[in-house]
Amino acid sequence: MKSLASLLLLVPAVLAFPRNPILNRRDDPTPTTEVQDGQTGTLIVLPPQATETGLKQIPDAEHPFIAPGPDDQRGPCPAMNTLANHGYIPRNGIASFEQITLALMEAFNLELIFGANMAANNMLTRGNPFIDRLSIGGVSPLVPPLPGQIDGPVTGGIAKHGRFEGDASMTRADAFIGDNRDFQDLLYDLDLLQLGKFGGDGPDGESTVFNVETLIGIKKQNIMMDQAANPMFEFAARRMNAAYGESAFMLNVFANGTTKQATLPIIGSFFRNQTFPQNWFRAASPVTGAINGATVAQIMAAVPTPPGRNNDQGVYVADPLPPAPFNSSFGCFAYFDQSANTPGVLVNTTGIFQKNVRLLTGIQSQLASANPGCTQEILPFGPAGV
Question: Exposed, middle or buried: residue 342 (CB in 10 Å: 0-12, 13-18, 19+)?
């Protein structure tokens, strides 16, 4: 069995992606809709890779900023909130897998599978993959529980803590001790202290450009503060992978494509205002998982906290490694952990429901399959109703 240190060195591979034939499988004559428990299911389809993938100013005239109304869903992800505020996904915050994937390609120039994996993770853990609907915030009557309530009486939306949303956020409190859904000025101000210490110099000579050193300082601070304050602190492999990936987004996705810099006004626009910055251009070429993963690896190497959680005494204890062959890289560890926290009841579905689940799990498998030990697809096997 490999040590955790050796697993951490392999993290970039978690975001590479060879082809997986399951994604293109349409071997059935099943109609595109069916009804279960009064819900009409919709067959989910993976969109094609965008053909126009160059530098582009975002938003365009068709996507102005409109502040959300009182019934619109918003949640812990600044990118999703920004997409909704500009209408790249429905402004009510209830979106399909295809809408989210297309928006990530159009607005942020994400490579297809890199963006689709994010949508798949959220849909499988906190959405309704039968009707192809996900709330980017909390509970909504527009996203009913799964047919037969096989995963409990509510879907929860991506703001619901545990399966995907988690602790040690840059701008949200841990769910056990505060508001994990809405932007927190105090946490952001603490992040800016790290920018002042480690950031690159902007045009005015001040430290106003986010860099890897700033992200390292922020994540060290997030983990240290939350582990001490939250007796239920958890930083499992799936959450670690997501938390470092979100940090890397600041440099690889939020940076202005014309300058390749993530300045204080740009990050403030996304984080605090949840709107695209003025005169902002998306990346000049598609942002792949490998690109973002390289930044993740730099952060992880400098913050050598193993996946784990607080025990009953408030002491942080490392999680055990998964069984072979899934213990051969950190990326495979995170994939195994995500599967272990996605409801296993999804596997025993039928018809369109099952086809949708298999498409989404196939996308997850494709992303993970570049990691040693991840050539085998892992179907969800986690508990329901949590």
Answer: buried
CA quadruple 297, 300, 301, 304: dihedral, nearest 10: -160
What are the start-end ranges of the H helices in the chain?
4-8, 78-85, 97-108, 112-126, 185-198, 212-229, 237-252, 264-268, 289-302, 330-340, 351-368
Structural tokens at position 309: 């959680």
By the 8 A CB rule, do 130 and 124 touch? no
Q: What share of the chain is helix, strand, coil (3-state, %, to 5)?
A: 40, 10, 50
Beta bridge partners of 41: 34
Q: Provide Rg for the chain, Cα atoms.
A: 20
Q: Please provide residue 41's backbone torsions phi and psi, each rounded to the nearest 5 degrees.
A: -80, 150
Asked if 207 and 199 count as a contact pair (C-beta separation under 8 A), the reply is yes
Return d(Cα 302, Cα 212) in angstroms, integer.
Answer: 10
pTM over 0.90? The answer is yes
DSSP per-residue letters across 98-122: HHHHHHHHHHH-B-HHHHHHHHHHH
How many angstroms separate the CA atoms of 302 and 219, rounded? 10
Q: How confident is the chain (386 residues) per 10-residue block, as mean pLDDT?
A: 43 39 41 88 97 97 98 98 98 98 98 97 98 98 98 96 96 98 98 97 84 98 98 98 97 98 98 98 96 95 96 97 93 96 97 98 93 89 98
